Amino acid sequence: MSNNNRVIPVILCGGAGTRLWPLSRKNFPKPFLKLGAESLIAQTVRRAAAVVKAVGSEDILLVSNESYQFLLQDECTPVLNSEGGNIALHQLLEPQGRNTAPAIALAALWAQTKYPNEDPVLLVLPADHLINPVPTFVQVAQNAVAAARKGWLTCFGIAPTAPETGFGYIQQGAPVDELNGAFAVQRFVEKPKLELAMEYLASGQYVWNGGMFALRTGDVLQALTQNEPAVALQAQTVWAGAKETKNAKSTGSAFAFNKDEFAKLPDISIDYAVMEKASNVAVVAASFQWSDIGSWAALSEQFSADSKGNSLQQEGTGQLISIDSSNTHVRLGNRAVAMLGVENLLIVDTPDALLVADKSRHQDVKKVVETLKAQGSELVNFHPTVHRPWGTYTVLEDSSGYKIKRIEVKPGAALSLQMHHHRSEHWIVVSGTAEVTNGENVFLVRKNESTYIPAGNRHRLVNPGVLNLVMIEVQSGDYLEEDDIVRFDDVYGRA
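The structure assignment produced for this chain is given below.
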């Protein structure tokens, strides 16, 4: 492949999505939320794959917290399989979040290592935006890549449709690449007050900062060295210590980093580190439909409203009863929700948390998360359903001395060989077949059968079948938290 054709989509899977609580949580954040048939990250990978196929490239790179490694593989691998084209999925696994400048620096160093005689263009994409239609996105991305190949650090500028105060703005200057619709960036503007946002909209000179970039590898590393050398130097140190790790479901690579060295990376965005300081910054107009789904108000706009302005997000079997209510968005789970004489509300029902908020306060949902965090509540971190490399478990009941879980294990997957000091477990198979190791014995447990694991016994659960294994687990003991696990062997490297 000619180095003029190499484009590597870099998908940034960070951010807590606190304004979309209680659906978005630390261990299952916004990119994994489904909007339609696929999650936001799956949709982003599908768009990235379309660009890769259009330019004849072959790699997609995900940058995320290390705890999302296998969850991302589960979301993204089926997308790439359905797209075809032998696209390799690679991962950079961060031990903690350090913002977009370090993430992009490490992505650039990864690309230089993989393709030392080339100067690939990184197409930097957030994992949690909603963009349509895909062919228009592919064309705009190619325009941005073309400008990047001419030495421009290129942003995507979204044509504003309202005086939005929640976005940053870019003022366009003179054309620098008319063939590809690129303009010099005159200045970046932080989230403005309403009066100023109205002026920007009326002037026609400003676009929203879409948080997407096309950056030639050498150019972005040089810009970091010139404008934020602490990021560039520490990124080199971190990359030098990178270790390739298990990437069970992908044909690509995965790299983990030294936690102490990674923590020394400055916490700074690419906007502050480079784009607002460099002189060779351009913006390409994006003509596609775009939303960052940054709040419940933004998400509610994706659902059609009835004659009274009410919109419904049906996610379960629940029923909505609406009487004399208007301009309200409801996210339904499996319970009935009744509205009587209310207006301008956001109602979000999940199995363990209910959000009721005034629509005008949609940006303040993060204050709820801050309050819960100060209280030490696990509602910030976990849903009742927790994702693991082997499948999921859902806490059905948690009380003093016992806990009941629904466990679902993917075909061919295995839990670690483990032991608990403080709890015993009863396993009842609901569907599928379980291969159980209990002490020195290995045996099968089939549908409607059960087994008992005493405290202190080494045990392992494997799904030997081709369908999901579903079990009910009843734990009993004086301590039932997840840290009472001693792992002896684990196919996912957690032992």
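Interim note for the steering committee: The chain has three domains: 7-291, 304-369, 385-489. Residues 385-489 form a domain with the Jelly Rolls fold (CATH 2.60.120.10).
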